Amino acid sequence: MQRSHIRNFSIIAHIDHGKSTLADRLLEYTGALTQREMADQVLDQMDLERERGITIKLQAVRLRYQAKDGQEYTLNLIDTPGHVDFTYEVSRSLAACEGALLVVDAAQGIEAQTLANVYLALENDLEIIPVINKIDLPSADVEKVKRELEDVIGIPGDEAVLVSAKAGMGIEDVLEAVVQQIPPPTVEEDEPLRALIFDSHYDSYRGAVAYIRVMEGRIKDRMKIKMMANDKVFEVSEIGTFQPQMTKASALAAGEVGYLVAGVKNVKDTQVGDTITSADRPAEAPLPGYRRANPMVYCGLYPVDSGEYEDLRDALDKLNLNDAALKYEPETSEALGFGFRCGFLGLLHMEIIQERLEREYKLSLITTAPNVVYQVNMHTGETLSIDNPARMPKNQDIAFIEEPYVSARVIVPSEYVGAVMELCQEKRGNFMNMEYLDTSRVLLTYELPLSEIVFDFFDLLKSRTRGYASFDYELLGYRQSKLVKVDVLINGETVDALSFIAHEDRAYQRGRELTGKLREIIPKQMFEVPIQAAIGNKIIARESIRAMRKNVLDKCYGGDISRKRKLLEKQKAGKKRMKQVGNVEIPQEAFMAVLGIE
Ligand SMILES: Nc1nc2c(ncn2[C@@H]2O[C@H](COP(=O)(O)OP(=O)(O)OP(=O)(O)O)[C@@H](O)[C@H]2O)c(=O)[nH]1
């Protein structure tokens, strides 16, 4: 294949601006799929993705396009996930491209994720083609979006391609722009092989299938290859391209995009961002930009029924085959028994895994409130990474604690600036900058602790701005903060799974709110149950749940806990999840209650 006739590109957009719809149109127009073959949106394959209306896994597809210049071009469209949890994956798929279509909704204009994506594209030196989509909408304001493109991003607005992906308008213009404006890949075929892995998935027959972009050299069937991140050697058993079905080929040369199968048993050996080289003639250095999947958010997962511990382990093992970013380690909680401490890229990633464990593996789980990873610097000079609040060392042994901070961008109509600033203030934010995008919209930049935004910030932001704010963030690094561990005691016993970390100034208030909430959540027992919050030995809040009246008790259960437990286990399916902690029954919501407090 002539390298000058290849174009490798991605579509980047803010959520809901029409990326998937445009991708479908491109597939349809180039005949990669007929309309009938096309299940709604082909590039989003997972059920969960479809239900949530977001793109989680990225993919690639090869399109053939007969351009107006009479030549046939091969276009490799590489899809990118549309969520901040997967920013690293986005950056790696952009690294596999020479250009990107920047889709902006004609009625909405530039939003926070538009900017985040543009920065990623620029970091990867991509040619950016602006596409203004949804021009069919009565509320479309093309001129305004053009001005925003110029003022905010510095792209000439008049270069934008005007499109209605829904109505199929402007699709040919998009394809022509791809062919004319995006440069072909440079040809470095004589160099030693360097291929970038930009995604992978696990296939029960073939093992890990890596999605690759060959940057230099050639990769051939039967070749011995080496993964540069861990030096493991494999033999290629199949390579090919996505048309969009996987189609075998004998070789892939520099500039080409395709897949590779090499008897790799686990996607951990086909890490996104890693470089594949030849085992016999290895490249000197890997491609830049690789990093290990780095979990940002941790939580505990425990089976409601302790008999399901092994099932939970098996399910995690299986999910892990296809998800190198998922981390899990066995952990024991005094309150919850045997379970796992699991690490995720972000909250969405966490919710996806939890949902899959429950839906696909039929597990009934108790989930503890998520938390970030703290760097705890001890008086001894040692630094500990703490991913579980219950494991926080004693205050007197700690010199100082650091927590992750992010830089957050919020775009919002100007009338909501006050509300957003107030929210960021409440969340310990430092104001950095405020910029008018046009007369009515403002870009606010704040630095915030990740722990404050990762959980309910987005929901609060949406509700306080009536859904008008858009938001994105990137990690800045660790900063020192005055943090303390707050323990919760129920009936005099510390429930380790309820411990949380809070800023010194807020610990008292949070302790009070949490105990108040727990009082409402935990059902009455046969005896009075005190609920306390404590910092070290100091009690900072106290509530109590009054005992049930005797006659009610008699009817409910005879007081034999083991019998009741058996009954509970039987009724578990479809029933409210409870965990027996000491002699108090605690429902699942209690373990998440800390999230709902300000
Ligand atoms: N009126 C109109 N609606 C459109 C157009 N393109 C897409 N939409 C609608 O906008 C919504 C979002 O489109 P998607 O293609 O799913 O958006 P997306 O950017 O892929 O969203 P994520 O996959 O979640 O990132 C859908 O309801 C589409 O039907 C268009 O040109 N005109």
Structure description:
With 598 residues, the chain is of the alpha+beta class. The protein folds into 5 domains: 3-181, P-loop containing nucleotide triphosphate hydrolases (Rossmann fold, 3-Layer(aba) Sandwich), CATH 3.40.50.300; 194-278, Elongation Factor Tu (Ef-tu), domain 3; 297-368, Alpha-Beta Plaits (2-Layer Sandwich); 375-481, Alpha-Beta Plaits; 485-596, Alpha-Beta Plaits (2-Layer Sandwich). 25% of the residues lie in helices and 34% in strands. It contains 15 helices and 33 strands. An 8-stranded antiparallel sheet has the order 11-10-16-7-8-15-12-13. The chain has a 6-stranded mixed sheet with strand order 2-3-1-4-5-6, with helices on both faces. Strands 21, 22, 23, 24, 25 and 26 form a 6-stranded antiparallel sheet that branches. β27 (483-490) and β28 (493-494) form a beta hairpin. The radius of gyration is 27 Å and the shape is globular. The model is unreliable at 52-58, 551-559 and 570-575 (pLDDT under 50). Bound molecules: guanosine-5'-triphosphate. Residues 13, 15-21, 53-55, 82, 133-134, 136-137, 164-166 line the site of guanosine-5'-triphosphate (GTP). Guanosine-5'-triphosphate binds next to α1.
Which descriptors would you attach to this protein?
Rossmann fold; translation elongation factor activity; six-stranded mixed sheet; 25% helix; hydrolase; alpha+beta; nucleotide-binding; 5 domains; cell membrane; 34% strand; 15 helices; Alpha-Beta Plaits; binds guanosine-5'-triphosphate; single chain; GTP binding; eight-stranded antiparallel sheet; Elongation Factor Tu (Ef-tu), domain 3; globular; 598 residues
